[in-house]
UniProtKB/TrEMBL annotation:
InterPro entries: CK1_Ser-Thr_kinase (IPR050235), Kinase-like_dom_sf (IPR011009), Prot_kinase_dom (IPR000719), Protein_kinase_ATP_BS (IPR017441), Ser/Thr_kinase_AS (IPR008271). The keyword Transcription does not apply. It comes from Sipha flava (yellow sugarcane aphid). ATP binds at K58. PANTHER family: CASEIN KINASE-RELATED. SMART domains: S_TKc. It holds the Pfam family Pkinase. Belongs to the protein kinase superfamily. This is non-specific serine/threonine protein kinase. Residues 27-312 form the Protein kinase domain. Keywords: ATP-binding, Kinase, Nucleotide-binding, Serine/threonine-protein kinase, Transferase. It is an enzyme of class 2 (transferase). Its EC number is 2.7.11.1. The keyword Nucleotide-binding applies.
Amino acid sequence: MSKKAKTTPKEELPSGTLLKDIKDTVWEVKNIIGSGGFGYVYCGIKHGSRSKIEYAIKTENMESGPLFVERMFYIKNVKEQDVKIWKTEKKLKELPLPKFYGFGSTVYNNNQYRFIVIEKFDKDLEEFLKTVSNSLLLGAVINIVRQIIDALEFIHSRGYVHWDIKSQNIFIGKYPRQNHVFLGDFGMVTKYKTENLLPDKKCANNGTLNYIALDGHVGMYTRRGDLESLMYNGLEWLKLKLPWTGQALSKTIKSKNQMKETILAAGPEEKIHDFVKVPHCYFKTMKIIYNLNPAEKPDYALLKNLLKQYKLEKL
């Protein structure tokens, strides 16, 4: 159910290909490290530099779109000075978004491609969670969810929703930032409305079916929707199966509504069926998110503080 690009690149760029960005910085393509509906991701280096720092170079055909959306989001919203001010105001050591280094276009074999250069990570969240022991899993997941709330607060403050939260789009920092995660892939970021917010069938069901928020199923881009999607992911990261996994669209929507009704009706200390090992504070957080009005600004600090209470609970 993910929104996809019209086409993927017609062919791979050979190792050694040089790409000049709009600031005349030259980047050298090495090997492919990933691919998606938009195109390919390459490991790259700054050409002519003695530095061993590696970068991620994302490419797509000019007639495609997600990478253009991602590029514009970075250019408009992730300016170095703005990030510095935000981190100071929010008392953050890191803003959980990848660093952006440049963009441009190139022609190879008569085909035109756009590219962006961003921070490269060695592993995504999906890979990382496989290495976490069961005894440490809950603490790790709560920490990750709280950091992604920080990322979403920044994205939302710029007037956008991310709308594609999943483990493949979250990355683990390299030393000395190995305790930090970073939310990437902004190919589906969308402006949200705070007035005249109505369902739009043309925008419905964009994203990965398992994690689409209820607002997403009716075509409303909302801040609460991003947070709801994050909380679905968190349950999976705890190695739990979402009740609608593998179901068709209609059954998935019905099951998500049933979960919402169950959580809203549950008492303060009542366990949710099938999720008995999940702390109460997790579902209290979901209840707050469910109770938000569609255009309401979430209290991100409240959500983070509530999740932190898992340490006080006995499971």
